[in-house]
Protein backbone atom coordinates (compact mmCIF):
# COMPACT_ATOMS: atom_id res chain seq x y z
CA UNK A 1 0.00 0.00 0.00
CA UNK A 2 2.95 2.32 0.61
CA UNK A 3 4.19 1.99 -2.95
CA UNK A 4 2.76 4.47 -5.53
CA UNK A 5 0.50 2.92 -8.14
CA UNK A 6 1.99 2.79 -11.61
CA UNK A 7 0.42 5.08 -14.27
CA UNK A 8 0.51 5.43 -18.02
CA UNK A 9 -0.16 8.42 -20.29
CA UNK A 10 -3.17 8.20 -22.58
CA UNK A 11 -2.28 8.95 -26.17
CA UNK A 12 -5.68 10.52 -26.84
CA UNK A 13 -6.24 12.86 -23.91
CA UNK A 14 -2.63 13.00 -22.63
CA UNK A 15 -3.70 12.26 -19.08
CA UNK A 16 -1.92 9.96 -16.65
CA UNK A 17 -4.12 6.93 -15.97
CA UNK A 18 -3.57 4.10 -13.50
CA UNK A 19 -2.08 1.02 -15.03
CA UNK A 20 -4.99 -1.12 -13.86
CA UNK A 21 -7.56 1.11 -15.63
CA UNK A 22 -5.52 2.08 -18.65
CA UNK A 23 -6.99 -0.43 -21.10
CA UNK A 24 -10.57 0.60 -20.33
CA UNK A 25 -9.72 4.30 -20.39
CA UNK A 26 -7.88 4.14 -23.67
CA UNK A 27 -10.75 2.31 -25.33
CA UNK A 28 -13.20 4.95 -24.08
CA UNK A 29 -11.05 7.86 -25.27
CA UNK A 30 -10.55 6.47 -28.74
CA UNK A 31 -14.26 5.89 -29.09
CA UNK A 32 -15.63 9.24 -27.88
CA UNK A 33 -12.73 11.77 -27.98
CA UNK A 34 -10.41 13.23 -30.58
CA UNK A 35 -7.63 15.80 -30.61
CA UNK A 36 -8.39 19.25 -32.08
CA UNK A 37 -5.99 19.82 -34.98
CA UNK A 38 -5.72 23.55 -34.08
CA UNK A 39 -5.05 23.48 -30.34
CA UNK A 40 -4.20 19.76 -29.79
CA UNK A 41 -6.77 19.52 -27.01
CA UNK A 42 -9.09 16.49 -26.53
CA UNK A 43 -12.62 17.30 -27.68
CA UNK A 44 -15.72 15.13 -27.99
CA UNK A 45 -15.93 13.95 -31.58
CA UNK A 46 -19.50 15.19 -32.09
CA UNK A 47 -18.52 18.69 -30.81
CA UNK A 48 -15.34 19.14 -32.84
CA UNK A 49 -16.92 21.43 -35.46
CA UNK A 50 -18.59 23.55 -32.83
CA UNK A 51 -15.35 23.76 -30.89
CA UNK A 52 -13.37 24.94 -33.89
CA UNK A 53 -15.99 27.55 -34.75
CA UNK A 54 -16.22 28.95 -31.23
CA UNK A 55 -12.54 28.85 -30.40
CA UNK A 56 -10.50 29.02 -33.59
CA UNK A 57 -12.51 31.21 -35.98
CA UNK A 58 -10.52 34.30 -36.98
CA UNK A 59 -12.06 37.59 -35.77
CA UNK A 60 -11.02 41.25 -35.50
CA UNK A 61 -10.81 43.38 -32.39
CA UNK A 62 -13.51 46.05 -32.53
CA UNK A 63 -11.11 48.69 -31.13
CA UNK A 64 -7.72 48.11 -32.77
CA UNK A 65 -8.95 45.85 -35.64
CA UNK A 66 -6.22 43.29 -35.00
CA UNK A 67 -6.92 39.74 -36.29
CA UNK A 68 -6.85 36.83 -33.85
CA UNK A 69 -8.61 33.59 -32.91
CA UNK A 70 -11.87 34.00 -31.10
CA UNK A 71 -10.54 32.24 -27.99
CA UNK A 72 -7.98 35.05 -27.49
CA UNK A 73 -10.38 37.97 -28.02
CA UNK A 74 -11.54 38.36 -24.41
CA UNK A 75 -8.02 38.46 -22.99
CA UNK A 76 -6.88 40.80 -25.75
CA UNK A 77 -9.66 43.34 -25.15
CA UNK A 78 -9.11 43.40 -21.39
CA UNK A 79 -5.29 43.29 -21.15
CA UNK A 80 -3.48 43.73 -24.47
CA UNK A 81 -5.44 46.04 -26.76
CA UNK A 82 -3.77 49.44 -27.17
CA UNK A 83 -7.14 51.11 -27.72
CA UNK A 84 -8.78 49.83 -24.57
CA UNK A 85 -10.05 52.55 -22.25
CA UNK A 86 -8.36 53.09 -18.92
CA UNK A 87 -8.87 55.75 -16.23
CA UNK A 88 -6.23 58.33 -15.35
CA UNK A 89 -4.93 57.97 -11.80
CA UNK A 90 -5.23 61.72 -11.16
CA UNK A 91 -8.37 62.97 -12.94
CA UNK A 92 -10.24 59.67 -13.47
CA UNK A 93 -10.70 60.54 -17.15
CA UNK A 94 -10.95 57.51 -19.45
CA UNK A 95 -8.40 57.50 -22.29
CA UNK A 96 -7.03 54.94 -24.76
CA UNK A 97 -4.19 52.93 -23.27
CA UNK A 98 -1.73 54.14 -25.92
CA UNK A 99 -2.24 57.79 -24.81
CA UNK A 100 -2.36 57.16 -21.08
CA UNK A 101 1.38 57.41 -20.36
CA UNK A 102 1.70 60.80 -22.03
CA UNK A 103 -1.44 62.01 -20.27
CA UNK A 104 -0.05 60.92 -16.89
CA UNK A 105 3.04 63.07 -17.43
CA UNK A 106 0.97 66.18 -18.13
CA UNK A 107 -1.81 65.55 -15.65
CA UNK A 108 0.57 64.60 -12.86
CA UNK A 109 2.40 67.93 -13.25
CA UNK A 110 -0.65 69.88 -12.12
CA UNK A 111 -0.42 71.35 -8.62
CA UNK A 112 -2.83 71.61 -5.72
CA UNK A 113 -2.59 73.60 -2.51
CA UNK A 114 -1.85 71.51 0.58
CA UNK A 115 -4.07 72.84 3.37
CA UNK A 116 -1.66 71.63 6.05
CA UNK A 117 1.55 73.37 4.98
CA UNK A 118 0.10 75.95 2.53
CA UNK A 119 2.40 74.78 -0.25
CA UNK A 120 1.60 73.76 -3.81
CA UNK A 121 2.35 70.10 -4.48
CA UNK A 122 2.18 68.27 -7.81
CA UNK A 123 -0.40 65.53 -8.11
CA UNK A 124 2.40 63.10 -8.90
CA UNK A 125 4.07 63.82 -5.55
CA UNK A 126 0.87 64.12 -3.54
CA UNK A 127 0.79 60.50 -2.23
CA UNK A 128 4.31 60.77 -0.80
CA UNK A 129 3.82 64.35 0.37
CA UNK A 130 1.37 63.23 3.05
CA UNK A 131 4.18 61.39 4.86
CA UNK A 132 6.54 64.37 4.99
CA UNK A 133 4.13 67.30 5.17
CA UNK A 134 3.79 67.41 8.98
CA UNK A 135 7.50 66.81 9.57
CA UNK A 136 8.44 69.61 7.17
CA UNK A 137 6.04 72.02 8.84
CA UNK A 138 7.27 71.18 12.35
CA UNK A 139 10.96 71.59 11.49
CA UNK A 140 10.33 74.96 9.90
CA UNK A 141 8.59 76.33 13.04
CA UNK A 142 10.71 74.72 15.73
CA UNK A 143 8.54 71.71 16.49
CA UNK A 144 5.11 73.25 16.11
CA UNK A 145 2.63 73.28 13.28
CA UNK A 146 3.06 76.08 10.72
CA UNK A 147 1.06 79.19 11.62
CA UNK A 148 -1.95 79.88 9.45
CA UNK A 149 -1.62 82.73 6.95
CA UNK A 150 -2.85 86.10 8.25
CA UNK A 151 -6.38 87.03 7.18
CA UNK A 152 -6.59 89.48 4.30
CA UNK A 153 -7.28 93.10 5.28
CA UNK A 154 -10.89 94.24 4.91
CA UNK A 155 -11.61 95.88 1.57
CA UNK A 156 -11.57 99.66 1.62
CA UNK A 157 -12.86 102.08 -0.92
CA UNK A 158 -10.08 104.01 -2.62
CA UNK A 159 -9.83 107.52 -1.20
CA UNK A 160 -12.22 106.76 1.68
CA UNK A 161 -11.20 108.54 4.91
CA UNK A 162 -11.89 107.27 8.42
CA UNK A 163 -15.12 108.53 9.93
CA UNK A 164 -14.92 111.91 11.61
CA UNK A 165 -17.37 112.86 14.30
CA UNK A 166 -16.87 116.60 13.78
CA UNK A 167 -19.02 118.18 11.10
CA UNK A 168 -16.80 119.64 8.39
CA UNK A 169 -17.75 122.65 6.32
CA UNK A 170 -16.96 123.64 2.77
CA UNK A 171 -17.09 126.90 0.85
CA UNK A 172 -19.24 127.41 -2.23
CA UNK A 173 -17.09 128.32 -5.19
CA UNK A 174 -19.73 130.73 -6.55
CA UNK A 175 -20.92 132.79 -3.60
CA UNK A 176 -18.03 131.97 -1.19
CA UNK A 177 -20.52 131.01 1.54
CA UNK A 178 -19.80 128.21 4.02
CA UNK A 179 -22.08 125.17 4.18
CA UNK A 180 -21.91 121.69 5.72
CA UNK A 181 -19.79 119.42 3.53
CA UNK A 182 -22.76 117.13 2.93
CA UNK A 183 -24.89 120.00 1.56
CA UNK A 184 -22.35 122.06 -0.35
CA UNK A 185 -22.64 120.00 -3.53
CA UNK A 186 -26.41 120.56 -3.74
CA UNK A 187 -25.94 124.24 -2.98
CA UNK A 188 -23.34 124.68 -5.71
CA UNK A 189 -25.74 123.19 -8.25
CA UNK A 190 -28.44 125.66 -7.24
CA UNK A 191 -25.95 128.50 -7.10
CA UNK A 192 -24.66 127.77 -10.59
CA UNK A 193 -28.21 127.62 -11.89
CA UNK A 194 -28.96 130.99 -10.32
CA UNK A 195 -25.81 132.47 -11.84
CA UNK A 196 -26.83 131.15 -15.24
CA UNK A 197 -30.28 132.75 -14.92
CA UNK A 198 -28.75 136.08 -13.91
CA UNK A 199 -26.40 135.91 -16.87
CA UNK A 200 -29.30 135.18 -19.23
CA UNK A 201 -31.29 138.11 -17.79
CA UNK A 202 -28.30 140.34 -18.29
CA UNK A 203 -28.00 139.23 -21.91
CA UNK A 204 -31.70 139.93 -22.46
CA UNK A 205 -31.37 143.38 -20.90
CA UNK A 206 -28.42 144.19 -23.12
CA UNK A 207 -30.41 143.15 -26.20
CA UNK A 208 -33.44 145.22 -25.17
CA UNK A 209 -31.45 148.28 -24.12
CA UNK A 210 -28.93 148.15 -26.93
CA UNK A 211 -29.30 151.89 -27.58
CA UNK A 212 -29.01 152.97 -23.91
CA UNK A 213 -25.83 154.12 -22.28
CA UNK A 214 -23.86 151.64 -20.18
CA UNK A 215 -24.77 153.52 -17.00
CA UNK A 216 -28.48 153.22 -17.77
CA UNK A 217 -28.22 149.47 -18.52
CA UNK A 218 -26.38 148.86 -15.27
CA UNK A 219 -28.98 150.85 -13.34
CA UNK A 220 -31.83 148.92 -14.97
CA UNK A 221 -30.21 145.52 -14.23
CA UNK A 222 -29.43 146.41 -10.61
CA UNK A 223 -32.91 147.75 -9.95
CA UNK A 224 -34.46 144.61 -11.47
CA UNK A 225 -32.09 142.24 -9.69
CA UNK A 226 -32.54 143.76 -6.23
CA UNK A 227 -36.24 144.56 -6.54
CA UNK A 228 -38.49 143.26 -3.77
CA UNK A 229 -36.44 142.12 -0.79
CA UNK A 230 -32.92 143.20 -1.77
CA UNK A 231 -30.37 144.51 0.63
CA UNK A 232 -30.87 148.11 -0.54
CA UNK A 233 -34.62 148.10 0.14
CA UNK A 234 -34.33 146.61 3.66
CA UNK A 235 -33.55 148.94 6.58
CA UNK A 236 -30.44 148.02 8.54
CA UNK A 237 -28.93 149.27 11.74
CA UNK A 238 -25.81 151.38 11.81
CA UNK A 239 -24.62 154.48 10.07
CA UNK A 240 -24.07 154.88 6.41
CA UNK A 241 -20.39 154.39 6.83
CA UNK A 242 -20.98 151.07 8.57
CA UNK A 243 -23.17 149.88 5.69
CA UNK A 244 -20.25 150.16 3.31
CA UNK A 245 -17.87 148.25 5.57
CA UNK A 246 -16.75 145.08 3.66
CA UNK A 247 -16.30 143.19 6.95
CA UNK A 248 -19.85 143.82 8.12
CA UNK A 249 -21.99 140.63 8.46
CA UNK A 250 -25.68 140.49 7.65
CA UNK A 251 -28.37 137.81 7.21
CA UNK A 252 -30.09 136.68 4.01
CA UNK A 253 -33.88 137.19 4.36
CA UNK A 254 -34.58 134.02 2.37
CA UNK A 255 -32.30 131.34 3.85
CA UNK A 256 -31.17 133.26 7.01
CA UNK A 257 -27.52 132.64 6.20
CA UNK A 258 -25.04 135.12 7.70
CA UNK A 259 -22.65 136.50 5.06
CA UNK A 260 -20.46 139.55 4.50
CA UNK A 261 -22.42 142.46 3.04
CA UNK A 262 -20.50 142.41 -0.24
CA UNK A 263 -21.20 138.71 -0.74
CA UNK A 264 -24.76 138.96 0.55
CA UNK A 265 -25.83 141.30 -2.26
CA UNK A 266 -25.17 138.64 -4.88
CA UNK A 267 -26.35 135.81 -2.65
CA UNK A 268 -29.79 137.39 -2.14
CA UNK A 269 -30.40 137.60 -5.88
CA UNK A 270 -29.42 133.98 -6.44
CA UNK A 271 -31.30 132.75 -3.38
CA UNK A 272 -34.49 134.51 -4.47
CA UNK A 273 -34.27 132.97 -7.94
CA UNK A 274 -33.72 129.50 -6.49
CA UNK A 275 -36.77 129.91 -4.22
CA UNK A 276 -38.90 130.97 -7.18
CA UNK A 277 -37.82 127.89 -9.13
CA UNK A 278 -38.94 125.47 -6.40
Automatic annotation (TrEMBL):
GO MF assignments? zinc ion binding
| Superkingdom, taxonomy of origin | Eukaryota
Say if the entry is tagged with keyword Transcription: no
What keywords sit in the KW lines?
Metal-binding, Zinc, Zinc-finger
Question: Does the keyword Metal-binding feature in the UniProt annotation?
Answer: yes
Coiled-coil region: none
Which gene underlies this protein?
xaf1
- Disordered: annotated span: 139-163, 226-246
Q: Identify the residues that the record assigns to the TRAF-type domain, covering every copy.
A: 25-100
Protein known as: XIAP associated factor 1
Where does each TRAF-type zinc finger lie?
25-100
The signal peptide, as residue positions, is: none
Q: Name one GO cellular component term.
A: mitochondrion
The protein's matches in InterPro entries, at most eight in alphabetical order, are given as: Innate_Immune_Apopt_Reg, Znf_RING/FYVE/PHD, Znf_TRAF
Residue ranges annotated as compositionally biased, kind Pro residues, are 145-156
Amino acid sequence: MGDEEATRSCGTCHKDVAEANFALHETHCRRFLCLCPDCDEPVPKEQLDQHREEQHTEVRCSKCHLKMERRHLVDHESDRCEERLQSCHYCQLELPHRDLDQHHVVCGSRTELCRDCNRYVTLRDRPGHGDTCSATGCSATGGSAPPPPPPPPPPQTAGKLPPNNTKSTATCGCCMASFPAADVEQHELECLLASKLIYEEEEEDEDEDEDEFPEQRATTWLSRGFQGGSLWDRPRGGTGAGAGDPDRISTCPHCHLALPVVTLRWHEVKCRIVINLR
